[in-house]
Design brief:
The complex is a heterodimer of chains A (210) and B (206). Chain A is mainly α and 210 residues long. Chain A has two domains: 1-38, no CATH class; 40-205. Chain A is built from seven helices and seven strands. A three-stranded antiparallel β-sheet of chain A has the order 6-5-7. Chain A has a two-stranded antiparallel ribbon with strand order 1-2. The radius of gyration of chain A is 21 Å and the shape is elongated. Chain B is mainly alpha-helical and 206 residues long. The chains are: A mainly alpha (210), B mainly alpha (206). The complex binds zinc ion (2 copies).
Chain lengths: 210, 206
């Protein structure tokens, strides 16, 4: 069973690609990506996820946008867009906004560290690693931090003529966070990740038997 | 060369981790996902999500997405109205971005997915490769439609801090978030392997 794999998009049976840093593998029938070319990509993914965690913490402690209104300087923080929606009785929309732009992106970084750190350095999985990994792959499409960032740029353009708004430290931290999260996700190759997970499980089973 | 799928060889492919399991296994041994040879009721679920998306698309575009209050005057703006305003402010690039993300992308996504469902049902053996590409496209672009909802969220928060203008979120914001979410669920419900089933194998089924 382990000498074959199947394309996730068309179910074609193919031989497992030989893991080579310089080549990507595509399905011969539907051209879906099977595994991406890379060098140490899981290590990169871990490094970016760790930086992302730190940057997200930074993004929480400084002003996100700075609003100059009639001599008064007003700060808006990262949570304010969701919090204001909540105050306007848009509870569900507020919840979605908080989850899509802060909660989920942060959790994805956290989960990556939780999964990749023990995998790379300890050759094991932490508690419920396999389930956590499955949920990670199922929810990652709902993280929308980069969409939010584009939204910030659009908003700034929209109000440029009406108000004096500058970006704060938190904004730059968030920009770097989005870069790190995107890089961490781009370096996380599904095929390699599960391939190593399987190897670690086999290894642990082997230890128990002997 | 005879093309063979995992299912025809007697295996179930896990859609999360890619592990092959024997056809009678109910839970993936690697990631613990519940296994089925193909996603259950894929076409029905996709259609149901699409119908919901179409129903939500109407209030999302015809109701105001935000209200602007300046002194005693009160304006409401729809998504299209916002695009026209940006165009008149000569912010052409951003006007196009918003127009694409909020109006074009959801329609294209709904049309593509409807076409995929119909083609799996009636025209199995045409343009599989193009349909695969289209499906991948719908998965990638869908999230970007949320941009206008985020713009409203940011403007509402900014002007609540101070200034002479107050901006209040309108009912279209939630409806629009609903459109994005339902089209994403529709794309997720669609099992792209159905495009390729019964193709190029011994017993062609019609
Ligand atoms: Zn394929
Ligand atoms: Zn699995």
């Amino acid at each position: 069973m382990d000498d074959k794999i199947a394309c996730l998009e068309c179910d074609l049976l193919i031989a497992p690609p030989i893991l080579n840093a310089k080549q990507s593998a595509y399905c011969p029938r539907c051209h879906a990506l099977i595994t991406a070319k890379s060098y140490n990509n899981l290590q990169y993914s871990l490094a970016f996820a760790l930086s992302g965690l730190l940057l997200m913490l930074v993004a929480n402690f400084f002003p996100f946008l700075i609003f100059d209104s009639q001599g008064q300087i007003l700060n808006m923080n990262l949570w304010q867009s969701a919090w204001t929606l909540y105050q306007y009785e848009e509870h569900f929309l507020a919840f979605l906004t908080a989850v899509f732009i802060i909660g989920l992106p942060f959790l994805l970084c956290f989960t990556l560290v939780y999964l990749l750190f023990p995998m790379i350095f300890l050759r094991k999985l932490w508690f419920s690693g396999q389930t956590v990994a499955r949920v990670f792959f199922e929810v990652r499409i709902w993280s929308m931090s980069e969409v939010f960032l584009l939204g910030v740029l659009v908003s700034l353009t929209k109000i440029m003529t009406m108000a004096d708004v500058r970006v704060g430290i938190s904004f730059w931290a968030y920009v770097l966070f989005v870069f790190c999260l995107s890089a961490a996700l781009a370096n996380l190759d599904r095929y390699r990740f599960w391939h190593y997970t399987q190897r670690i499980i086999n290894l642990q089973r082997g230890h128990h038997v002997s | 060369m005879l093309v063979k799928t995992a299912l025809e060889a007697g295996y179930i492919t896990c859609q999360t981790c890619g592990k092959l399991s024997a056809i009678d296994v109910v839970k993936c041994p690697l990631c613990y996902r519940n296994l089925a040879p193909r996603q259950l009721k894929s076409l029905q679920n996709t259609l149901a999500w699409l119908c919901t998306a179409i129903l939500l698309y109407l209030p999302a575009n015809f109701l105001p997405i935000m209200f602007t209050q300046q002194f005693s005057q009160y304006y409401s703006a729809t998504i299209v109205g916002g695009v026209i305003d940006l165009w008149q402010q000569q912010a052409y690039f951003i006007a196009i971005v918003i127009f694409m993300a909020s109006i074009v992308v959801p329609i294209i996504k709904i049309v593509i997915l409807l076409w995929l469902v119909v083609s799996v049902k009636y025209y199995r053996e045409h343009h599989q490769k193009q349909r695969s590409i289209m499906y991948r496209l719908t998965e990638i672009v869908g999230r970007w439609s949320m941009i206008d909802v985020f713009v409203v969220a940011i403007l509402v928060a900014l002007f609540q801090l101070g200034g002479v203008i107050t901006i209040i979120p309108g009912p279209a914001a939630l409806a629009f978030a609903g459109v994005v979410a339902t089209t994403m669920f529709a794309a997720k419900s669609f099992d792209s392997r159905l495009i390729w089933d019964h193709v190029n194998t011994e017993g062609k089924q019609h």
